[in-house]
Amino acid sequence: MKIAIIGGSIAGLSTALRLQNSGHEVSVWERRNPTSSGGFGMLLDQKTLTLLSSLGLRLDPQLQKVTKYEAHDIHSGRVVRRGLDGSFAIQRSTLIDHLKNEIKHHSLNYDFEFTHFEPNSGNNVQRACFSNGHKIDADLFLGADGVRSSVRNLQVPGPDLTPVKTVEVVGMADMNSLPAKSRNTFKKYIHQGKGIAFGIVPCAGDKVIWYFQIDNNKWPQSLGSNHQRNQWLSEELSHWPHQVRRIAMSSRLENTHLWRTTDRDLPLQFHRGNTLLIGDAAHPLLTFTSQGVGSSIEDAVILGDLLDEYESSPHQNLDDCLGEFSAIRKPILEGHLKNGRDLQQRFLGQRPHCIDTYPVSA
Ligand SMILES: Cc1cc2nc3c(=O)[nH]c(=O)nc-3n(C[C@H](O)[C@H](O)[C@H](O)COP(=O)(O)OP(=O)(O)OC[C@H]3O[C@@H](n4cnc5c(N)ncnc54)[C@H](O)[C@@H]3O)c2cc1C
Questions:
Q1: If you average pLDDT over each of 2-6, 90-94, 193-197, 284-288, which comes out highest?
Q2: CA-CA 20 to 30 A from 325: which of 100, 139, 173, 197?
Q3: What stretch of H or E contains 286?
Q4: Are 112 and 30 in contact (CB under 8 A)?
Q5: Are 243 and 177 in contact (CB under 8 A)?
Q6: CB-count exposure of residue 332 (10 Å: 0-12, 13-18, 19+)
Q7: In three state form, how does the secondary structure of 65-105 look?
Q8: How far apart are CA 88 and CA 168, in angstroms?
Q9: Mean pLDDT, the chain, as a whole number?
Q10: d(Cα 343, Cα 349) in Å, to the nearest integer?
Q11: In angstroms, rounded to a whole number, what is the distance separating the alpha carbons of residues 121 and 186?
């Protein structure tokens, strides 16, 4: 089958690889240039690693094992510790590069910004069109273009994104800013009731990812200009423990990234005609549960399996096959969505807040 994927990040690339492995004629269309993979890093669980290895990826040397979780309540000084089974951190650029290396070079197209579709008949699309005038025909179109997906807006709209209630300011520091005994520990410093927390995730490549999680209603400065936000963070950091200050100040605040976190209710179906949404375009998740990357890779594997079945059974039609994708994915995603919202409410103080159940998030 000829399959065009709009968006070449984790969902787009892992799906391209899975479909290429089944012999489909795949192309990926990404608006960024090939060198700008951007981002910092992510926590992966054992299940996600197993899925990545089923795609043929061997990431072991690029992974940092994260074996412990430590939550510090700044107000009371209380610390809760627990073991983390099978968690690993990886730089985003490393994961993206590994996926790209496995995909046929000619399938990857950069500097192509999708703008609209040209229809075929009924709900079906004939071709995708790009801002540089290029057009591509395909049998199946996959929207992997992220949280604010244009493919979704045009072809499979469904529920709106929820308002942004929490933002994350993310940065990366060198591992030597972290004491040796903390280099396999995911730490979270929590200011109960203040609407702000600080997370530290040791990552491979001698890096540490850190982030402030912020209630943007309590701290509107977090949504101001970069300059305003950095000034506020510099001043705010003076009230935080030494280790937090050391890590955040060892990397330049100008190099941080601001995430406006949002999600949306699940739609009835993730597809319309021959267009299917995958990854964050289909089901953006709040960052509290760390399930964004894993869910994208799970989409890739499940879709690949369903298309294998579809190709081998002459009586099945594409609509049923894509409908089955929604039927399999929705109950699992519903769980992540509920969990993320529950954890966000606790963070915002809208539900009882207990450090022992504090979100593991990155
Ligand atoms: C630059 C960047 C950095 C990130 N960094 C981190 C991180 O450090 N830690 C973390 O946990 N998560 C990070 N994420 C989010 C994480 O990748 C996703 O939540 C998750 O992996 C799901 O991925 P996705 O492929 O569905 O969406 P995304 O990763 O958001 O990818 C969507 C892709 O579609 C492309 N795109 C959008 N519109 C168009 C268009 N019109 N035409 C063509 N292409 C288009 C975007 O450029 C992007 O590459 C980052 C995402 C991005 C885009």
A1: 2-6
A2: 100
A3: none
A4: yes
A5: no
A6: middle
A7: EEEEEEEEECCCCCEEEEEEEEEEEEEHHHHHHHHHHHCCH
A8: 21
A9: 93
A10: 10
A11: 52
From ligand 1's centre to the CA of 275, what distance in Å? 19
Provide CATH code, domain 60-90+163-262+349-357.
Answer: 3.30.9.30
Q: Which residues contact 63 (CB under 8 A, 6 or more apart)?
A: 44, 49, 88, 89, 90, 204
| Count of alpha carbons within 13 angstroms of residue 306, beta-carbon side | 22
SS3 125: strand
Q: How far, in Å, CA of 38 to CA of 54, rounded?
A: 25
* 99 touches 58 (CB < 8 A): no
Q: How far is CA 190 from CA 134, 196, 331, 355, in A?
A: 49, 7, 31, 8
Q: What's the CA gap between 360 and 362, in Å, rounded?
A: 7
Q: pLDDT digit string (tens) for 164-199?
A: 999 999 999 998 888 888 889 999 999 888 999 999
Give the contacts of 280 (CB within 8 A, at least 6 positions apart).
11, 146, 147, 149, 292, 296
Ligand 1 near 31 CB (within 6 A) = yes
Query: Per-domain residue ranges for the chain?
Result: 2-40+93-161+264-347, 60-90+163-262+349-357
Query: Which of 6, 9, 37, 286 maximizes ligand 1 atoms within 8 Å of its Cβ, making it the mutation to test the pocket?
Result: 9
For ligand 1, say whether the CB of 195 is within 6 Å of any of its atoms.
no
State pLDDT tens for residues 274-327: 999 999 999 999 998 889 999 999 999 999 999 999 999 988 899 999 999 999
Nearest atom within ligand 1 for CA of residue 37: 1
Beta carbons within 10 angstroms of residue 11's beta carbon: 29
Q: Which residue has the tokens 């949002």?
A: 262
* Residue in the block written with tokens 């600080």: 198
* Mutation to probe ligand 1, out of 10, 87, 208, 263 (largest number of atoms < 8 A from CB): 10
The CATH code of the domain at 2-40+93-161+264-347 is: 3.50.50.60
Residue with tokens 């375009």: 281
Residue 336 token pair: 């992540």
